[in-house]
Write a structure and sequence with these properties.
Elements (H helix, E strand, L loop, with lengths): L3 H9 L5 H11 L2 H18 L6 H11 L13 H10 L1 H25 L9 H38 L2 H4 L17 H11 L3 H14 L6 H16 E4 L2 E5 L1 H17 L6 H17 L3 H13 L5 H10 L1
Antiparallel strand pairs: 1-2
Helix pairs in contact: 1-3, 4-6, 4-7, 6-7, 9-10, 10-11, 11-12, 12-13, 13-14, 14-15
Length: about 325
């Protein structure tokens, strides 16, 4: 029979002498002692790192505190460390209270249903139900953890395989909105909808603006914003992963940018033509047409548009 007190004394020491190491090795040859050493060291190291108590061990502690005899034989050796940790860790305290409450609920139900004894007793059925409940909790936790790990893996893969020009959001800046001369109500309502990511609503208002004011000098700007709207609308992904773009919406967006360039005859807004070329270049990259993208980005670079540095970076990226 192993000397458990001596074994625990050795396990608690930080530095062991050679003779003590030999004693510990001798203990390890006994299957029961080997189990105690493994569990005790795992819990000790975990608590020393200020980690939380494993839920299975916490469940064993609940059984112990409720006078059940169904807990692991290693548990009594860990009581001091568990209770020291519970005094300091609010999360583990809360977990203990929840598990203890579940045990009490099950025990009370079974006791009231099938026991007529005056004294409270903990039946095997009580312990079996509690253990089944605890196993179900562990299974649910494991499933959530597995899904989370799978998502993290997919996120990393998506991040590594998606080009930067795809990951970067298409411009939604409103910094330049207030510097333009277009102030129709439909146009402003379209901008508000775009700001709130209500793309279909924005398209509706801006399209109505085109119909009602086809000959206005600043109508080119409605086409410009429609281009931004359609390309933002085109974006799609799977749970935030593997971003892609609907090609039809991207091409419609490009058409509106091109129409904006064609109709822009105002000398004050010539820089907006180069901005439109820049967004057309970015839009072509979203559907993997690098040749067309390069043509428009080069126009921005050659004419020193406001986005010429960004255009250079994009060209260098592919």
């Amino acid at each position: 029979m192993i000397d458990i007190e001596k074994l625990i004394d050795l396990l608690d020491k930080k530095n062991l002498s050679e003779s003590e190491l030999n004693q510990l090795n001798d203990f390890s040859s006994d299957p029961e002692a080997k189990e105690i050493i493994a569990v005790y060291n795992a819990v000790k190291n975990s608590l020393q790192r200020n980690e939380h108590i494993d839920e299975e061990l916490l469940g064993e502690y609940v059984l112990y505190k409720n006078n059940s005899k169904e807990y692991s034989k290693v548990l009594p050796l860990l009581i001091v460390k568990i209770e020291d940790h519970l005094r300091k860790c609010e999360l583990c305290q809360q977990n203990f209270k929840e598990l203890n409450s579940q045990f009490s609920d099950v025990d009370n139900f079974v006791s009231n249903s099938i026991s007529t004894q005056a004294e409270k007793s903990y039946t095997p059925i009580t312990q079996m139900i509690f253990r089944k409940k605890f196993t179900a909790m562990n299974f649910a936790f494991s499933t959530i953890a597995a899904v989370f790990l799978l998502y993290i893996g997919l996120f990393i893969y998506s991040n590594l395989t998606t080009p930067e020009y795809i990951k970067a959001p298409f411009s939604k800046d409103r910094d330049f909105y207030n510097t333009r001369g277009r102030t129709t109500e439909l146009f402003q309502r379209g901008l508000d909808a775009l700001d709130n990511k209500k793309y279909d609503e924005a398209i509706k208002f801006l399209s109505e603006d085109l119909k009602e004011n086809p000959g206005q000098e600043s109508i080119f700007y409605t086409h410009f914003i429609l281009g931004l709207t359609f390309i933002n609308k085109a974006e799609k992904d799977f749970l935030g992963l593997f971003k892609s773009f609907n090609k039809d919406d991207v091409l419609i967006g490009i058409e509106h940018f091109e129409k904006s360039i064609e109709l822009n005859q105002n000398e004050r807004f010539q820089n907006l033509k180069l901005d439109a070329h820049f967004y057309i270049g970015k839009a072509y990259l979203l559907i993997d047409d690098k040749n067309s993208a390069k043509q428009h980005l080069q126009i921005v670079i050659d004419n020193k548009g406001s986005y010429f540095k960004d255009a250079e970076k994009l060209i260098n990226s592919f």
